[in-house]
Amino acid sequence: MKQVFGVIVVAVVAIFNMYVAIPVGYGFDIGTETIALAAFVGSVGGTIAMVFVGDRIMPGVRRLYRRIRRKDDEPDEAEQTGDEKSGKARGLVDRFGAPGLGLIGPMTIGGFASAISGVAMGIPKVKLAIWIGIGQAIVVILYSLLLDQVVAA
After folding, report:
1. Those residues with Cβ within 8 angstroms of residue 27's Cβ, 6 or more apart along the chain or in another chain
2. For 93-146, how does the pLDDT look when each residue is reduced to its tens digit (9 = 90+)?
3. What whole-number distance in Å separates Cα of residue 136 and Cα of residue 107?
4. pTM of the entire structure?
5. Alpha-carbon dihedral of residues 22, 26, 29, 31, nearest 10 degrees?
C-alpha cells in the first residue's frame, strides 16, 4: 500500500516538477523503473493538460501580467524590459522551433513551464506536446539513472 501511495505521489509531484518527484520516489522505497515511469506519466500528463487547456487560461494570465506590469515603476537602466526578454525568447523559438523548446525546455525550466511558454508563443499544440514529451522522456531516463547510481553508492 505504501508503494502504491508513493507512485501516486510521484506522479502528482511530477506534474509540476519532475526533478523533485524522482527523489521523492526513492523516499518511498520504490524501484527505479517504477519511479521513472510514474514521473514520466505525471509530467507528460501535466504537459498535455497545459498544452490543450492552456489556451483557455492564457487570456487571464496576459491580463494579470499587464496589471502587474502597470503597477511596476520604470525599470532600472541596467535591467531589460519584459518586451526585450520576450523578444529574445521568441527569437530562440523562431530559430529552433518546437523541437528546440521541447528538448531544451524540460532540461532547463521544466516541461510544465515549457508548455506554458509554447502555448503563449502560439506553437502548434500537437507538435509542442510531442516534442516536450520526448524531452521529458530523455530527462526522466537520465535523471533516474543518475540518482540510481547515487542511491546505490
Report:
1. 6
2. 788 888 988 888 888 888 888 888 888 888 899 999 999 999 999 999 999 889
3. 8
4. 0.75
5. 60
